[in-house]
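Appendix B, record 7
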Amino acid sequence: MAGHSQFKNIMYRKGAQDAKRAKIFSKHSREITVAAKAGGPDPASNARLRLAIQNARAENMPKDNIERAIKKASGGEADNYEEIRYEGYGPGGVAVIVEALTDNRNRTASTVRSYFTKFGGNLGETGSVSFMFNRVGQIKYKPEAGDAETVLEAAIDAGAEDVQSDESGHLITCAFEDLSEVSANLQERLGEADTVRALWLPQTMAPVDEERAQSMLKLISALEDDDDVQNVYSNFEVSDEVMAKLTAA
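Structure tokens (predicted):
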């Protein structure tokens, strides 16, 4: 019976991983389709599509899935997705930004609001928290791209604003409006990046205790699990001690 139980546990974990993987692919497909519909199906002349494909590849999304998403836009089969940004506060006044691609604004707004309410937060107006963040571009390279000095030199020449290098790789930050140009310049020097994306970077962090951290993690998990939500950003900060407790629970 022990062997049977172990088999069931392994299959359950595998099923959960497969479901998570499918959801990630679905979000990438939606972004690829929207990008292709807005700027055309050729990545060479469509910077947003080029970045969307690059990030999908970084998640090991199959080539067939990528091509299918582009064809869906080209063939006029794609739904009309609308880009919406929601802003609000989580438990303890933590700032949260939610980016969504939706074909039903009312449905998504209602669902996002319900998540905030359920986990002790409240949804605010557009602009209510985004002033606490900087809109930036971020380019990630694996360690194999080169040593810290080589990457730093390439980043400076490319027009980047900051570089952080450690054993996990290189994180290059640039102005949001320069993202396409900087990533193209870096590709010439370092090859294709692991990921290239625009994001909201908090200007200051908001420390939270264990109870609020637990609620925040549940809120973010619920939001990220929603099909319409593409990205979630927050400025909450958790100590290593509290995070160790929460991950061990």
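Remarks on this record: Residues 2-39 form the longest helix (38 residues). The chain has eight helices and ten strands.
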